[in-house]
Recover the amino acids of this structure.
């Protein structure tokens, strides 16, 4: 009778797993509702915190017809809604930046950019399903993870300069920038003020006064597929997909998982496996319809947190807005995106970068995950020697240096890992020398006793 017993055990385990999943899901929805009810303006404001990095890439890819704006709004909106329901945190849905950069430089077609997104989604899905991404996460030192986060934050701040309008004859942009920045500083003291929402409303009001906005009408989404040929798939994969893969793995999955734990320590945050499967599902569906390849990102999470988002309710709100625009008003959306003042986006990107850079401050404290775990196990916790502190800073800043110098997360990652391994090799060499010295002393002592 072993077979029925085994089957009964399997059904019991499946039933318990199903009950736990249902309980967790209901708990997430309760948290979403309670958080939105307690601070609705903050959640709405936080949902727009990432538009500074989203809009420039979205507009540029739409203008060269590499993506369908309506499909991108529909599928990224659905992704926002589903991730908000599933994870209960303000998890962003961002463009895959390396793919976007290559697509803009080489004027990719829709099938070519779709190929790159499908390749990355399949690769991340494979790493997640096999458990390799979880193993990889556990093997990466925390200083390297912090370095990726800080490097990404500094990259955002640098990129903000590219958004600032170069032509400013009357000094209007400079005045707006100063006022917006003063408002940003004030928002650090008055946290309940929905800064990002105010900036968004100011930008839209400035557009309403322009006559060209009224030329655009409502339009219904007509989905169409974008199926790549073997040649297009090869080009998209080799020239854009492979370069995006390490960036998505490091910044959009691993760094996001750690950042969510840092920013929301009292909330159950998603695992790297869950985040990887999320990236896979979003792109294996949307890219076939001309949607922009997207992923999650630590910069977007930092931005949305900085401007008030604390739950999945914020991105569910954003997702519903995107979905409505994509289904009925993509032309109006494009007009608003094109005309939105870049000087206001500049300030939002700077704020997001600063929030992400601030994560590095906890490197040598008990808030760092590896040190807090040591403390829980009865060790020293945050009590590090001065040499250990210096080494951890060195690894983190070596990672940052690689990211900034080469504008590539993968280079920064390998630079940080090489620095970490060099310290380990130095320790082993010193241990070996110390062991040999003790052996010689022991042998010498024995010789003296026999004389």
């Amino acid at each position: 009778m072993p077979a029925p017993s085994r089957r009964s055990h399997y059904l019991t385990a499946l039933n318990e797993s199903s009950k736990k999943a249902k309980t967790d899901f209901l708990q997430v929805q309760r948290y979403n509702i309670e958080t939105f009810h307690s601070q609705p303006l903050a959640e709405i404001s936080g949902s727009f915190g990432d538009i500074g990095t989203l809009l420039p890439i979205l507009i540029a890819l739409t203008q060269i017809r590499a993506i369908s704006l309506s499909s991108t709004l529909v599928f990224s909106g659905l992704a926002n809604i589903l991730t908000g329901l599933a994870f209960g945190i303000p998890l962003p849905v961002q463009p895959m930046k390396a793919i976007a950069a290559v697509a803009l430089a080489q004027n990719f077609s829709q099938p070519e950019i779709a190929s790159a997104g499908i390749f990355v989604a399949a690769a991340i899905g494979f790493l997640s399903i096999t458990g390799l991404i979880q193993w990889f996460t556990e093997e990466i030192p925390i200083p390297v993870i912090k370095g990726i986060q800080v490097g990404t934050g500094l990259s955002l701040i640098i990129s903000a300069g590219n958004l600032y309008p170069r032509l400013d004859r009357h000094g209007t942009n400079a005045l707006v920038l100063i006022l917006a920045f003063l408002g940003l500083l004030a928002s650090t003291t008055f946290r309940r003020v929905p800064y990002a929402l105010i900036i968004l409303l100011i930008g839209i009001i400035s557009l309403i006064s322009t006559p060209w906005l009224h030329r655009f009408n409502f339009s219904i989404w007509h989905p169409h597929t974008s199926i790549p040929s073997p040649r297009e798939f090869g080009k998209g994969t080799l020239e854009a997909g492979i370069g995006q893969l390490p960036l998505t793995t490091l910044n959009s999955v691993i760094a996001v998982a750690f950042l969510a734990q840092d920013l929301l320590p009292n909330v159950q945050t998603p695992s790297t496996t869950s985040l990887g499967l999320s990236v896979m599902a979003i792109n294996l569906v949307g890219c076939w319809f001309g949607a922009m390849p997207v992923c999650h990102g630590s910069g977007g999470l930092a931005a949305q947190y900085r401007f008030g988002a604390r739950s999945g309710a914020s991105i569910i709100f954003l997702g519903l807005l995107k979905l409505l625009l994509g289904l009925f008003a993509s032309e109006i959306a494009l007009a608003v995106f094109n005309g939105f003042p870049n000087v206001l986006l500049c300030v939002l990107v700077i704020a997001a970068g600063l929030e992400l850079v601030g994560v590095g401050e906890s490197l040598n404290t008990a808030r760092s995950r590896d040190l807090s775990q040591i403390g829980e196990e009865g060790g020293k916790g945050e009590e590090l020697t001065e040499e250990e502190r210096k080494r951890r800073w060195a690894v983190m800043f070596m990672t940052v240096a690689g990211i900034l110098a080469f504008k590539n997360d993968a280079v920064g990652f390998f630079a940080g890992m090489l620095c970490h391994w060099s310290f380990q090799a130095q320790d082993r060499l010193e241990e070996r020398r110390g062991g040999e010295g003790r052996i010689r002393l022991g042998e010498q002592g024995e010789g003296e006793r026999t004389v």
About this structure: Residues 409-450 form the longest helix (42 residues).
